[in-house]
Design brief:
The protein is an alpha+beta fold. The chain contains 9 helices and 12 strands. It has a 5-stranded antiparallel β-sheet with strand order 2-1-5-4-3, sandwiched between helices. It is found in: Cell membrane.
Length: 480
């Protein structure tokens, strides 16, 4: 099922604003309609009840009534309907009469008759006839007043009045409310847009500021407007950005000092180390002529001097990467031949290293740096993995261009899962017991930097059959 893209914040704000406006308009219109309808109908029924009461009280009665007299009464009353024309029905004992052709009305209910009996002054109901038309039915018992005492006469009169006019008035009010709601909602879009703009402006400013900081401009700040929650958020962002800028500045200064120190120390150590290496080489030649204890001490000094020389060279190399001073000297290279030369220089052309080197794979790369990369990977596999080490080369065509893939796999126990994330970290050694091994702890870090300089990637994993596998993936045509 295709997912629907979420609505933007502006759309949601405007929708929420219009929803509130619509609910308010509907609620107001409903309450207004109810109040107006009640007022219109109440005015009509009050007028009708009052008119009928006044007219009934003035009707001359000659009791007991006969049919002719009852008909005359209802006919006279039927002509005096107010506020609308009405039909009058009279009931006196078993006698029935009306101002219409029908002797009784279909809108006069038994409930209304019971109310008239219980409340002789007057009773009314709003009802609908079988056709669904609204009517007001009013019932009233005629009384006579001897000596100011109300006594029933037995005559009950009912007036039925159509409420068509009042219904039309109410319908017109509803239609007016509907017509007014649409322009009202359209007008409400304007304040909705203004409200959304006032809310989204600081959000957009904050997004741009965050993007700017993400690009490295830590001096980015947001203009604070007003004193609401968004202004408070902007102030907090500025304070956080200021603290971050200060922290990053201090870290950069500390890192620069550390790099400068490492570069300076490495540079200063190269000259005395060169002399020490020359002397140890001469002493190594004379070791066989010395007593065993002196010879062992001499060989130890020579070995440690060699380790120190390797460490200094690695520090010099890594400091050039940190200072972004490392450069590529690209050349068109036969990859199989370059791999063979690297293994030959280190005397690894024996059963310890197995190669799969297809011919006619050429790449644009820096031969010296490629030699460092391959030597570090194979040497690391031989020292910390196990022979035989397999070196495979292949080329792949991908949408982004042709790629060179080199795999170096050993036959050792593999890399522990907790070690894998740190395998390319500087000075990282998986085994604390190997802190005095021949490696400087910078070999894989330098290898990774050289691969990145070529625009490639280097990954480490464990093979399916055991052993560690390092995969180099870089373009065949590197950018100069």
């Amino acid at each position: 099922m295709r997912r629907v893209a979420p609505l933007g914040l502006r759309t949601r704000l405007i929708a929420a604003f219009l929803l509130v406006a619509a609910i308010s308009a509907v609620t107001t219109a409903t309450l207004t309609y109810q109040q107006a309808r009640t007022a219109v109908l109440k005015q009509s029924q009050d007028t009708a009840v009052s008119t009928l009461r006044d007219q009934v009280e003035t009707v001359p009665l000659d009791l007991p009534l006969d049919q002719a007299q009852l008909q005359r009464i209802v006919t006279d009353l039927g002509k005096k309907g107010k506020p609308n024309p009405w039909n009058v029905f009279g009931e006196y004992g078993t006698l029935r009469a009306s101002s219409t052709s029908a002797p009784t009305s279909t809108v006069v209910s038994e409930e209304l008759r019971r109310q008239v009996t219980a409340h002789p002054h007057a009773a009314f109901q709003r009802v609908t006839d079988p056709a669904g038309r609204p009517y007001l039915a009013v019932g009233m018992a005629a009384v006579w007043l001897p000596h100011d005492v109300r006594e029933p006469t037995g005559l009950v009169l009912f007036a039925t009045m159509p409420l068509t006019t009042e219904g039309n008035t109410v319908e017109a009010m509803v239609e007016a409310a509907k017509r007014g709601a649409v322009p009202g909602l359209a007008i409400a879009v304007v304040p909705a847009l203004l409200a959304a703009r006032s809310v989204l402006r600081p959000v957009r400013d904050m997004r741009r500021a965050a993007q700017s900081m993400g690009r490295g401009r830590l001096d980015t700040r947001i203009e604070v407007r007003g004193s609401d929650e968004l202004a408070g958020l902007a102030r907090t962002f500025n304070e956080t950005a200021g603290a971050l800028e200060q922290s990053v500045s201090e870290l950069r200064e500390a890192e620069a000092r550390a790099r400068r120190f490492a570069a300076d120390v490495s540079h200063e150590l190269r000259t005395p180390l060169a002399g020490m290496l020359a002397v140890t080489e001469v002493l190594d030649e004379e070791a066989e002529r010395l007593d065993p204890d002196t010879a062992a001490a001499l060989r130890l000094v020579s070995a440690e001097t060699g380790k120190l020389a390797v460490l200094v060279e690695d520090l010099m190399e890594i400091s050039r990467f940190d200072a972004r001073a490392a450069e590529l000297n690209l050349d068109d290279v036969d990859v199989a031949e370059a791999v063979h030369k690297t293994l030959e220089r280190r005397h690894w052309l024996d059963e310890r290293v197995v190669t799969d080197l297809p011919s006619q794979v050429r790449a644009r790369l820096d031969p010296r740096r490629f030699d460092v990369v391959l030597a570090n990977l194979v040497g690391n596999a031989l020292r910390h993995g196990g022979a035989p080490v397999r070196v495979g080369v292949r080329a792949e065509v991908r949408p982004g261009g042709p790629r060179l893939l080199i795999e170096v796999a050993d036959s050792g126990p593999g890399i522990a899962p907790e070690v894998l994330p740190h395998i390319f970290d500087r000075f990282f050694k998986a085994d604390a017991a190997r802190t005095r091994s021949a490696g400087s702890g910078l070999g894989l870090a330098i290898t990774l930097e050289n691969v990145r300089l070529h625009g490639g990637t280097l990954s480490a994993a464990n093979g399916g059959a055991g052993g560690a596998v390092f995969t180099l993936d870089m373009p065949l045509e590197a950018d100069a």
